[in-house]
């Protein structure tokens, strides 16, 4: 069964999403997500100019061989653009294999390890009170885990706090918005948020927090220690993680569990973190870490060292990624938690899908393959719109991590 054609579909039903559609000579097709927030067109070009030409005529069943061909055959390995493109091909080929087998992908990955996938949602607000009001609504709706992010007093805006209460889209401008950052003010407010969070929400719900790469290891150690009385599920992206050694220093100072990895692209980005047990959760996901095949490899490696998964699931990852992640989540022994943010209704209209949320747990449908489709006519109604993620500066104008 050969690959007859492959096309990239770009649509913006609220935000830009890039989808690869691979068609076979037997009429069966598969979908893969290739969205790289704020850099979408670079992956489109990589796919169109350098990947699709070498796919045509290949045996669509040979998922691993095609993965190896695209990875080793590029010579210039790794990186978010290359790995998102490979991920899209890999995901689409698993979709095709599932459809041909008449089975949902999780069955091809070994079958279920659990009945449902625990997800965490995002509660955010400009103040602690606003944040906890939203969190209370989520708790009443049955969520078992809630991420808390609030505004930092004195700052006009900060990561994780949206203009809209229920949707969060950080890529908010056709040129980067400039935010101001203040670490001491941030370090004061987060323990207050968690103290008030436990008072308001009690102890039978998991609470999470994303630092979004903004602290030094020693600052992260202090925050982790300050939060210990409130038992957070995890602290995410404590420091910019180019330096895997940094996590050793954080570990020396706190027993708060650590998560990292949404921007990682391969196992090589987290090998040391995992084998030295410097983290508790690895957040790599399908679209930016080489597809279902490579994410599974990362998960299996992590399992050996007692590290669990907590896949990235922000709205810049399309419903195709969400479905693919759920198939992996269901089929691995060391699943930890899955991030979940609702997409806009327009996005769900473009991507009909079978996965559903019930009482804090997500499940896929038993449709063959991924269980997600794309309505190309509807997708065409939402043309690409350039959008950048914000950038951050310190009060004195120094460029900082966003
Ligand atoms: C998360 C992430 C996102 C990222 C976004 C960037 O934990 O969900 O940090 O909110 O900022 O995916 O494109
Ligand atoms: Mg994050």
From TrEMBL:
Superkingdom of source:
Bacteria
Any single GO BP term = amino acid catabolic process
Domain Mandelate racemase/muconate lactonizing enzyme C-terminal residues, every copy: 128-257
Its annotated pathway?
Answer: Carbohydrate metabolism; pentose and glucuronate interconversion
Alphabetized GO MF terms = magnesium ion binding; mannonate dehydratase activity
Q: Which Gene3D superfamilies match?
A: Enolase-like C-terminal domain, Enolase-like, N-terminal domain
Could you say which EC number(s) this protein's record lists?
4.2.1.8
Cofactor(s) named in the record: Mg(2+)
**What keywords sit in the KW lines?**
Carbohydrate metabolism, Lyase, Magnesium, Metal-binding
**Reactions catalysed according to its record:** D-mannonate = 2-dehydro-3-deoxy-D-gluconate + H2O
SUPFAM superfamilies reported in the protein's UniProt record:
Enolase C-terminal domain-like, Enolase N-terminal domain-like
The record's section on SMART domains has: MR_MLE
Q: What does this protein do?
A: Catalyzes the dehydration of D-mannonate. Has no detectable activity with a panel of 70 other acid sugars (in vitro).
Which NCBIfam families does the record associate with it? ManoateDhtManD, PRK15072.1
**Family per record:** Belongs to the mandelate racemase/muconate lactonizing enzyme family. GalD subfamily.
Name by which UniProt lists this protein: mannonate dehydratase
Give the species. Asticcacaulis biprosthecium C19
The record lists the lineage as: Bacteria, Pseudomonadati, Pseudomonadota, Alphaproteobacteria, Caulobacterales
